[in-house]
């Protein structure tokens, strides 16, 4: 008997796998990779090693973007379509059962842990949207939920499953200690779509008509540093630290403007959209302002690969422009 598990590498998904393993069932972990969560990471791989399981990465970026754009069940507090996202993962996982010669699916979902997306009705809707044949087992809350096909068929013993519910994770943490599973990530988090600041940046991109796979590089730029919007569909992304600068450089193929220092340390700046001369001047002044010179002296920079001189900046006038154009995470109406 073999099961496929939705696996983030965190507390609940790890414990769900171990509970099933205790019944002698082999588990293969599927880590789903979108633009907003998942992907190769040391913590997930370390936990997979502790569990002694095979870890497979499943790239579903394109179809997940469509769910974020048009979620049948609507969004949560931010831009997160949790119910439809979970359903999509189960649907994709079900399509992999034959490939891995597996019989059913498991996840670390806990009844009542997330009041909106993991209540009794929501879990039922996830199964309906996933279009699977009653083969989803949630080992941590199984005794609080209807009996599933794997339980009815005797593939897994319901008596050895758990009855956890609610938001506290004390019981899970105690069980992880009992199983000797250590160095697991702190509970919660993981999906950028639930982060209010990032979510509001993404809503701005949606408002401008770019919430699609073709413009998915904007999803990643929105994770980086400072964001300025001069006009509809026209942005500047300004690094705050070296890691930001490296991430901006990775996306420069999509840039209509790209600035780095030429002798004076400062942020990388990437522009998207049709830039006017005034926009370019603003970008160069931003570099000067956030560079080591603080805008107080003449410097040189590389603008699209060309050495360009920037005079000392009128900091008061620039501050007004920054206040006008910088997007600070406010809600989009």
TrEMBL record:
Superkingdom of origin organism: Bacteria
Pfam families, sorted: NFACT-R_2, ThiI
Sequence ranges assigned to domain NFACT protein RNA binding in this UniProt record: 225-310
Keywords associated with the record: ATP-binding, Nucleotide-binding
Residue ranges annotated for the Thil AANH domain, each copy included: 2-140
GO MF annotation: an example: CCA tRNA nucleotidyltransferase activity
InterPro entries: NFACT-R_2, Rossmann-like_a/b/a_fold, ThiI_AANH
Designated name of the protein: tRNA 2-thiouridine(34) synthase MnmA
Species of the source: Propionigenium maris DSM 9537
